[in-house]
Fold these 2 entries.
Entry 1:
Amino acid sequence: MADIAARGSVAATGDSRSSLHKLMQRKSTIAFLMTLPLIVLILVLVAYPAGYAVYLAMLNKGMTRFVGFGNFDFLFGRETFWMVVYQSCLFAITAVIFKAIIGFVVAHFVHNIPSKGQRKWRGMLLVPWVIPPAMSTLAWLWLFDPSYSALNWILAGFDIERIPWTGETGWARFSVILVNVWIGAPFFMIMYLAALKSVPEQLYEAASIDGAAWWQRIWYVTLPMMRNIIAITALFSLIVTFANFDIVRILTRGDPLNSTQIFGTWAFRVGIESGDIPLGSAVSLFMVPILAVAATFILRDITKRGSEV
Amino acid sequence: MAQVTLRKVVKMYDEVQAVRGIDLDITDKEFIVLVGPSGCGKSTTLRMIAGLEEISGGDIAIGGDVVNDVPPKDRDIAMVFQNYALYPHMNVYENMSFGLKLKRTPKDEIDRRVKQAAQILDITELLDRKPKQLSGGQRQRVAMGRAIVRDPKVFLFDEPLSNLDAKLRVQMRTEIKKVHQKVRTTTVYVTHDQVEAMTLADRVVVMNAGLIEQVGSPNDLYHSPTTKFVAGFIGSPAMNFMPCHLEQAAGALRVRLSDTLSFPVPADRTVRYAPQVGKANLILGLRPEHITETRPHVEPNQHDFQNPIDVVEPMGMETLVYFTVAGSEMCGRVNPNAGATAEKPMKLRADLSNMHLIDDGTGKVL
């Protein structure tokens, strides 16, 4: 449509009205107008809050005075901040690795189910990802409950001692990651399944004739063919996981003793619950450089290989 | 030594029999072509030899060992696929050396074999390229190179030329034949193109509906088909088939095509055809090259007749003429200078010494 309108531009006449008319009919103008709603949306919902957060992060607690990098300086000196950096990275990287591995394995199983039953399995396996995380995390909270934990009840059946799922640093971190993996793995599964379907069957046949065992077919054919999907999915998931809030907030609230606190939840604790909004903004801004570095590396790898396959 | 033996091989897909019990002996160093229309079971047969399809019944032996339950990787075979199936993330060298690498062949040995194969196929300067950077013909060479370096017991080709354009196809056909003459590995080649089959094969296996119709040298199949299917499938344009009946007249046999047109049967065939006199369901098979324009010199068993021409197709070195006799369309090959004109009668000559008499009920050539 845009193309037709643009080509239809009428021959030039002198006055300014017709030059405005001409401007409106130019392809780039039309393209700009069509993307305008999205640009406005991004400006209002992304650019403005981001800029405002930067501004807020440079104010004092009462938001009355400009303090420059004072808040950041203060954070660098606090032990809890470095704990949060460590925990955020641990949480995001471990969760993404497990989501990727589980997603890959499950995708392989589903891929090998005859197509008749496959839809059913695909649907069922997607359930954890489809349920709103706040709700499913509540269910997990009850499973982990110190007094009524269903998991502990099952373990008791095998004469295994009660596990303090959310009460002890190690277990709390484990539980938070477990729930995140449970929710996020189906996304990897569905992405990998789509990628698996796009690998031509004959490559596997050629590989098996070349003498490759099943694990060599995965290593030499599947993985290289899926590299870009794996990288993109990992990057996407890394960003979302790193910025996670709901799971940790509902499951542990960052406790015990801030040992499961990550950027999102700690920024909330500092900014909203403790009433220091500028400091909270400063905390949340730290996610940007860390994610930017990860994104640069992963995306550079993809563009490098994009031309190969 | 790698002969391939198929004994009563059957392939079932659920209730459908794709291959219905075939027997085939392929001798060492032989170039065998399986040819037939789509769905005749030729690719399935090849894939069963490769181990990519399970065998529902019968035995397949490679080099004397039954391989029914041996996975493809342990059969010591190499296969060239229709769409080449090159690994897109590996360059040509890696593609060709992949099989050897998996077998833990020493590096210098791999290097020697890859370079040697590259030289045979004239792709030495492409070794660093990715498959994406190659043309169709080059990819085809690489796929063959990947097969050659392995030095397998058997080469399997699954319609390797059907993705190439007509000119390249002819060129690669010659190439494949040259390669086989150099490496002399037992080869099983599947195609639906009978010209490919005729030009490449030591022996051609014609398949139809899951069964072998006939096995023989290209010339055997062309000149002495045993069934109507083979007679019609081999040769282009296809053999003319005309309903006919045999009649006895004055001690000689005549094959009658219509009320007005009949030819005497060659004397050396009268004994063979005598029992068919008066039977229904007979078909006369005559190749287009045995219907020509009239010439001054008449050989024995050549008979002239006149018929209006429907369509004329000049091919350059020859002209194809189509005409109708008693409701069936026939094709003849005439000299371009014979003056064939559409919708005009033309004097033609049939050479009955190469006729085939076919029982349409059983499909057998009599």
Entry 2:
Amino acid sequence: MSRYRKIFNRVLPAIFLVLFLSNNVDSYAADGKALFKANCASCHKVNEKFAGPALKGWKDRVPGGDWIYKWIANPADQKDPYATKLMAEYKPTIMTPFPQLKKEEVDAILKYVDDWVPDTPVTTPGAQPEGSNDSLLFGILTLVLALIAFILLQVNSNLRKLSDEKEGVLRTEPVPFYRNKTYLMAGILALFLVGGYYTINGAVGLGRQQNYQPEQPIFYSHKVHAGTNQINCLYCHGGAQDSKQASIPSVNVCMNCHKSIDKYAGPDKLIREDGTPVDGTAEIQKLYAYAGWDPTTKSYKPDSNGDGVPDGASPIQWAKVHNLPDHVYFNHSQHVKVGKQQCQTCHGNIQEMPEVYQFANLSMGWCVNCHRETKVDFYNKDDASGNKFYSIYEKFHNDIKNHKMDSVTVEKIGGTECQKCHY
Amino acid sequence: MKKTAIIATLVLSTAVVFISCDSKRQPGKVYMPDMAYSRAYESYALRDSNIFTTNPADAGHKIFYNSLPPAGTVRRGDMLPFNVPNDSAGLAMTAQMQNPLPPATGRDLEEAGRLFNINCAICHGAKGESNGPLAEKVGGVKNIITASPKFSDGHLFFVMTYGQNNMGSYASQLSREQRWRIVQYIRTLEPKTEAAPAATAAAAPKADSAAVKK
């Protein structure tokens, strides 16, 4: 029995270590890319001259020091030779000042620009199989090694049996390996651990819908709309800044542009998740059917039954991707408007998804973790910056003044209280 | 020994059951459906057509509900409706219409600018020069800065509310106050006609500030 215990004591911590390491949660840092998209992309491209200069290689062109921060905060006030040259080159356009961008945000944008590499035309599932291939390789290696060890053990016991027979030592007939208690115990232990791991993971995942990617009635590519065409998320999902729901746009919002855009001729190839190509123009025709729009006459069909919508028009029944259980309250405006969170923080890089899938697992641990780490835009009495609502937190203001704390997280102002989300 | 084998088989088979439920196209199962799925009707949820109707004629024996506020109601805190018909006569009525809002403060303008960049700049461009990312694809996008000085506030509001040519209505995306604020923001984008002589003539700044006050 002590042998089992020894094995057990050695193997178990190792297994836990492996599980722990492999289970590390990917943290999603507030990135320069999103900031670039939100602030710079309307005038700058990384690699090409657009309304403003290409940003790649900025370091070699601009004067050193903190010139770049000063320029971004207030371009019109820079009078040095390089600034005058820039302004002359792009006359009459002068760059929009961005005094609201903090130094670290500018750094994040510049880092994104520096690290940027042109998109290679590879289909999206690139990184994922790479990782699983590795683990498959390791798995096979482990199996091969285990098999070798097993064969060697068998050889060893056979050799011992032979030498015992030669020397005339009488020994009991060794039990075959499938009845050997050590092997059986090790096998059961391995099964138990592997089975337990998957059982627990499955049980934890039950009710969570990470990677849920429903098929939508129209192949609507967020990559084309929000990525290539740079339409702001809030253009269609305006409810996110005013209400609990992010709101799915009604058909008239689609028709704002699709009245005139009736063909798909974009640079991105539309490909479904299973690899079948999609005819973008046919998908736009589907939209016209829902909207009751006649593309030949370029007008809405008449409303003969007087219900206020063109004949044959009906709402599009989009499949909801992100579902929270009924016992959780979540409010979009609280996060988007007050907390100033980027959509991508929770929804992932939507602007790169041809078909939207659920990026985060939306578990409670995930919510709470963010509430613990996120700092609120705390009101600063000295320079009157920050959200004035937080001026009521007297104690925290005193603590900050006395240098007991340097920032206030969402948790500190009650962001992890049960009743905030469950009531 | 037999017992451990049975336990192992059970654990494995449960694991197989959990894993086999995993499909990207299906939303998956939940532990307690009565706590996960709302009994109350959530936004956008499909309503049971045996109970609910959107046809006013069926209102007697079914529940009539079409998510629209009753005609003539004004949301609390919202501005009064824009009672100008959507036709050329209506457009003519706006020729002298003034912006009903008080002059915008810095914060209002900032917010209006944000909304402009989200909703308008996609075609009209951040400066209103009809160079937004979609301008070429949509086609016929008007250069706001050269066009708007000729039009009254009411005319701009009318266009935002009902749309014009290729432009759709933004009444469902922007509230009446937001639209009037954007009108004020567009005015700040317009080139200051008085600004050019201001550099040479000393009297010009006075006229400029008077114009702003108006």
